[in-house]
Protein: Glycoside hydrolase family 88 protein
Organism: Halioglobus maricola
Amino acid sequence: MAAANLFDRVIDLADASVERYDPASLKWMWGEALYTYALDLLDNELGEDRYQSFNCAWLDAHIEKGYRVDQSDTMAPGLTAYAMLRKTREARYQNVVDRVTRYLKTADRVLDYMPNHLGTSPEGRLYPKSVWVDSVMMYGVYASWYGREAGDEAIYDFARRQPELFAKYLQDPEDKLFYHCYWAKAGHTYPRNKVFWGRGNGWVIAGLPMALEHFRHDSPERAHAIEILQETSAALLPYQRDDGFFETVFNRPGKTYIESSATALIASGWMQGVAEGYLDKRYLEPGLRAFEAVVNSLEMKDGLLSMPLISAPTIAIQLIPYLGYKYTPRGNDWTYGLASLFFAGINYRKLEQRGLLS
């Protein structure tokens, strides 16, 4: 597919998704947060307000009926609220941003400077207190963006500490890949054996460059975050399949299944990493191949363009984590999967605009 057509295909998917979904019916949760935030980034890329009314309608529906901010997954909508606040200056979005920021400042820390991923939510009563690799994206990107831009030094300080802490608790010291969780009381990663979840490592590869956009260039934490991105990318590279995809448990090739959200996240991070100079050019071809693999997998469903092969929301199930990953079903158009490909599309355009695709 021609270069311009790849990005156009991503926009076609975004247009199809807003036709498919009623914004008021979408949940107040991490997947929908990333999806609407990614739509806003596409608007910025296009220089349009094509998706702004959709995003405002989603926020307004939840502001009217009430929403919770009690864990990393329910504070992630702060990304969209802050984006809409910057564009509309509406007080109702400021209220959401203030509530999200207050949560980050006051949430109990379970490890060093890190909050329990499930916070004080009802879901949190059913799972050990823990930090999750998902939070690299769920609160890491918001904290770096808001903290730096709003001049909130407490939040910025929180943000710049996080990459090192995620690596300290979740990165395997030998393999340099990330585990899904670290259980605070037990004092170990979970899974305990070397089972590496694709989307989890995708959060790292895509999320770190997004946070790095807002780190001060002279900060030592920035340099360390780049090192983490580089060593995780090097560890991940051998697991890319010939067809460009990654599998949902990628270090057990052929035992699970190809997964498009993980593949799109890794594509996004590698393309942004090369464009920004965090990664050398050996990641350009693998990043492009991953992006093209996912774009070329798009299909028609119910008369609209659709993204397949996205695994359902996934937790590290107690006692049987590997089987939990292996048998999590895949479906079409999970919101976080769409967001992953939108992120990748934006970074593909960045490469194109910087003359790195020739």
